[in-house]
Amino acid sequence: MSTLAVYPGSFDPLTNGHVDIILRGARLFDRIIVAILVNAEKKPLFSIAERIEIAREVFTSQSNVEVDTFDGLLVDYVAKRQAQVIVRGLRAVSDFEFEFQMALMNQRLDAQIETVFMMPAEQYTYISSRLIKEVFSLGGRVSGLVPDLVEQRLRQKV
Ligand SMILES: Nc1ncnc2c1ncn2[C@@H]1O[C@H](COP(=O)(O)OP(=O)(O)OP(=O)(O)O)[C@@H](O)[C@H]1O
Ligand SMILES: [Mg+2]
Fold first, then answer.
1. Fewer CB within a 10 Å sphere, N or C end of the chain?
2. What percentage of residues in the chain have a pLDDT greater than 70?
3. What's the pLDDT at 92?
4. Residue 18 Cα, ligand 1 centroid: separation in angstroms?
5. pTM (2 d.p.)
6. Contact, 154 vs 35, CB < 8 A?
7. What are the CA-CA distances from residue 142 to residues 15, 25, 74, 91 (Å)?
8. What is residue 152's predicted lDDT score, i.e. its pLDDT?
């Protein structure tokens, strides 16, 4: 049996924390879909099209990483794709409560789907898209925290 995993998020923008989790997922599962949530935020910095393009470019040489979008209930999307696993990343205790709630709710909504949590390498545990945008907009350096392509795109936004 081949295992397909879905890693959902807003990825606005993709950070090296996300990349770390995706690469771990790509090693653990046969295939992983980076599923970009449409309509999550009213005012995203990067459009859905830009986020798709960035993720596809970053994982261009990773043949078992796919980039897609979804809307509505995550479990419906996972079932539609015939995936078995939802991947989520855990940075700190602060992520735990929300992730725990979501995992149990999703388990109730669809008992066939398992949520798997992974920890990133230590140096990425404090990175979030929100913090990257905030630091960058105030003139701080984000190199090493996001893929080079994301850094370039951030510069073009200003
Ligand atoms: N640095 C990181 N290390 C491990 N997991 C992460 C990291 N950043 C995000 N994740 C996980 O990736 C998934 C998608 O998260 P999301 O798209 O909300 O990213 P985010 O960085 O938290 O963005 P935002 O700041 O906009 O909330 C979640 O499971 C989240 O916990
Ligand atoms: Mg988040």
1. N
2. 99
3. 86
4. 6
5. 0.96
6. no
7. 10, 24, 31, 18
8. 97
